[in-house]
Design goal:
alpha/beta, six-stranded parallel β-sheet, globular, three-stranded mixed β-sheet, 15 helices, single chain
């Protein structure tokens, strides 16, 4: 068997209502002065309040940083780090979607070590140490609570990442009740995002693709495929919400160790330039990348097709099952109400060439794709998606 390395969050709490007792779960880990990183929407909804009260009851002083925005810019990270230093924080909480969790990871690293972010960009370059870190996701999509990656927008459009096991949190708290109020569009886009993580992890040609990641990816697809439409039809279904949250986490564990590829590489220019949410960006290019990859990866997509869509078990041929899998993913996005084409989210045909050039900057992802992608290939995929 090929050697591999598998890292994940050491402690995972999966329990409806767990955020209401965050103090007993995490206060000892975080210490006396805690910075909670979140976004203004969640703060206004009061979603963080029970967790803050629980921490206070456990003796922790909590400072709130609630200025995180989608696709967070470097300026937001710098402001959050300044807030941690001003509060002399002994621990950091990320509370929210992937953006808040990503910011919290790097705040814990920079405030804990004082190292330059310029030296930490890339894979395995962070030195640490970091402050204690607890992540509480409120969407079922990114899996950021179990991934060693943080993505920040630098300048106007470029996305850069820090990838290091150092920024895995000490504790991940999965509370399905926190996802009950998610609007259908966000529920759908983040759910498809999680499915993309599982699909790309399974088919990744990264040298660290491993049996654990493959197993987790398949279970993630089973949970996500069985529940993604249920949480749209029944938004208050806690069991279905919990299954989505768990599926998202399992997909996160899979791609954290068997990294994602061209779907994400081509999605980043969509989000960075046009500020389209990350999950929707992935959904827009997903079927077109899979069709491009099929000559080299049809057997892999055929292996997982029935995990997400059990009816595809009836497809006997590898090529037929792969093609049916792509069509089912396309139909799923349509049933979920997601816009199907790049033009539907305001992207003009004249932008496609620059997007293809920008996608080529994501070589850390493209090297994992089962089929090599050139700039002209990327442009063809964008044209098919347009």
């Amino acid at each position: 068997m090929t050697p591999f390395l598998f890292n994940t969050t050491p402690s995972i709490v999966f329990e409806p209502g767990a955020a209401r007792r965050l103090g007993p779960i995490a206060a000892k880990t975080l210490g006396a002065r805690v910075l909670l990183v979140t976004d203004p929407g969640l703060r206004a909804l009061g979603l963080c309040d029970p967790a803050i009260a629980s921490l206070a009851e456990s003796g922790a002083a909590v400072t709130i940083f609630d200025d995180v925005a989608a696709d967070p810019k470097l300026s937001i990270l710098e402001a959050a780090t300044d807030a941690a230093r001003s509060a002399e924080a002994t621990g950091i909480i990320g509370f929210g979607g992937g953006s808040s969790l990503d910011v919290a990871k790097l705040v814990a690293l920079i405030a804990g070590s004082g190292e330059s972010l310029d030296n930490a960009w890339g894979v395995g370059n962070a030195k640490g140490p970091r402050l204690p870190l607890v992540l509480v996701p409120t969407t079922a999509g990114t899996g950021s609570e179990v991934t060693p990656v943080s993505i920040i927008t630098v300048g106007e459009e470029e996305k850069r990442g820090v990838s290091s096991a150092l920024i895995l949190p000490d504790i991940a708290v999965l509370d399905a009740e926190l996802t009950l109020g998610l609007p259908p569009a966000i529920t759908a886009a983040t759910g498809v995002d999680a499915m993309v993580h599982a699909i790309e992890a399974y088919a990744s040609k990264n040298a660290n693709n491993n049996p654990l990641s493959k197993m987790l990816a398949r279970e993630a697809l089973r949970l996500l495929g069985a529940n993604i439409e249920a949480v749209i039809a029944e938004p208050a279904n806690v069991a279905a919400r919990g299954a989505m949250l768990l599926g998202s986490m399992l997909a996160g564990q899979a791609f954290a160790n068997s990294p994602v590829a061209a779907v994400h590489a081509l999605a980043y220019p969509i989000g960075g330039t046009f500020h389209i949410p990350h999950g929707l960006s992935n959904a827009l290019v997903l079927p077109h990348v899979l069709r491009f990859n099929a000559p080299d990866a049809a057997h892999l997509y055929a292996e997982i097709a029935a995990d997400a869509f059990p009816a595809l078990e009836r497809e006997e041929s590898t090529q037929g099952r792969c093609a049916a899998f792509v069509e089912e993913l396309t139909a799923l996005s349509k049933r979920l109400g997601l816009p199907p084409r790049l033009r539907d989210v305001g992207i003009g045909e004249e932008h496609l060439a620059k997007m293809a050039a920008d996608a080529m900057k994501q070589q850390r992802l493209l090297v994992n794709n089962p089929r090599d992608v050139s700039e002209s290939d990327a442009l063809s995929i964008y044209r098919a998606a347009w």
